[in-house]
Amino acid sequence: MFEDFSTGLLLAVGAASALVILLAGLRMTGLADRIADRTAFGEAVVGGVLLGAATSMSGTIVSLTSALGGDASLAFSNGIGGIAAQTAFLALGDMIYRRANLEHAAAELANIFQAGLLLLLLAVPFVAYAGPDVAIWAIHPASIALFAIYAAGVYATQGLREDPMWQPTDTAETRPDQPEDGDEPDKPARGLIALFMGLMLVMGAAGWAVAQVGAEVVARYGFSSSIVGALMTAVVTSLPELVTTLAAVRRGALQLAVGGIIGGNTFDTLFLTMSDIGYRDGSLYHAIGRDDLFWLGTSAVMTAILLLGLVYRERSGPGGIGVESVAMLGVYAGAIALQATTG
After folding, report:
1. Residue 46 pLDDT greater than 70, yes or no
2. d(CA 153, CA 76)
3. How far from 184 is each of 65, 179, 191, CA to CA, in Å?
4. Torsions phi, psi of 70, nearest 5?
5. Residue 301 binned pLDDT confidence (cut-offs 50, 70, 90)
6. Mean pLDDT calculated for residue range 202-208
């Protein structure tokens, strides 16, 4: 569709789409915080499930559109690259929260559980890639497994909140999940949820435009689909996670910030399920390359570091941020440098 656009117009469309995604994501943060206050779910669950899925809408459209167009690498790397970028965004949130290490202050069992769930979900594509090339109606069984594991994990996460088997130790730096001053917790959340869903549709439309721009960049300039997916479309469609994380940290909704990133990353693994359904030339997992697996491994390493940080709960690291944040930024920067020099 965009093949007749000039380079300037193509960049303008991409920039406008990114701005729409950015503004919609910013508005959705406040809505999610208020929805958490007016329901029984809490910040970690609303951040991990509702906000995480909603801010991933544009990325979902990018991966599905790319898969329907036959570009398996762009579809795969967009979702997996977004997980790496969004985990790095959490480290940036730690940098602006000066009272303590963010992973220490946002102690919440649901976030720890979801991080472990994310590692499990990231392992499934590795197994699919290394296993036999099988497909049922051009859909690999791993895609079905991803959806089933995610659904079971969401159910278990809510159960953890309702009946936790252990609690993190409260310290002077711990920020509990409490309603915002001036909000009405007993007021129905229907209006907020309706507005939230409307913004999701807007982000979906912007994501479609980003997918078209990304595909045209690959076709016009001969860039690797893996690089474009992991470092262009993934970062652009991850802007809501950056905005919502920083905004939530500044609002003091720390569980929402951490839960939004981890939950969004968990939901992003379902990009692979949807992409595999959209990719009609066989198994998506056997149509990708080593560069795509590189970003899958990078995302797994960064998630493992985050999980260890959530469990260890360092109070304050060098420069006021946690050692895990420094490590996550270092891994992400190193991955970009390695990909840029070898890709």
Report:
1. no
2. 22
3. 41, 8, 13
4. 90, 5
5. very high
6. 81
Asked whether 159 and 114 are in contact (CB, 8 A), the reply is no
Going by the DSSP 8-state scheme, the letter that residue 137 receives in this structure is T
Tokens of 277: 């359904």
Q: Round to whole Å and give the CA distance between 137 and 119.
A: 28
Letter for the amino acid at 324? Answer: E
Which amino acid belongs to residue 199? L
Enumerate the H helices of the chain as residue ranges. 7-38, 42-45, 52-55, 57-68, 72-96, 102-105, 109-130, 141-162, 190-221, 225-228, 234-237, 239-251, 254-268, 270-278, 290-312, 323-342
The amino acid present at 226, given as its one-letter code, is S
**DSSP conformation class of 163:** S
Mean pLDDT of 309-325: 78
Among residues 299, 305, 310, 306, the alpha carbon closest in space to that of 332 is found at 299
Residue 139: beta bridge partners? 136
The residues near 84 (Cβ < 8 Å, ≥ 6 apart) are 230, 234, 295, 298, 299, 302, 332, 335
d(CA 293, CA 129): 9
One-letter amino acid of 8: G
Kindly report the average pLDDT of the chain as a whole number.
Answer: 83
What is the model's pTM? 0.82
**How would residue 330 be classed by pLDDT, with cut points 50, 70 and 90?**
very high
For residue 140, the surrounding DSSP H or E stretch is none
Backbone angles phi, psi at 173, to 5 degrees: -90, -10
The three-state (H, E, C) secondary structure of 61-118, written as one string: HHHHHHHHCCCHHHHHHHHHHHHHHHHHHHHHHHHHCCCCCHHHHCCCHHHHHHHHHH
Please count the other Cβ atoms lying within 10 Å of the Cβ belonging to residue 226. 26
Handedness of CA 65, 244, 336, 84 (dihedral sign): negative
- The three-state secondary structure class of 319 is helix
Cα angle 185, 103, 88 (rounded to 5 degrees) comes to 105
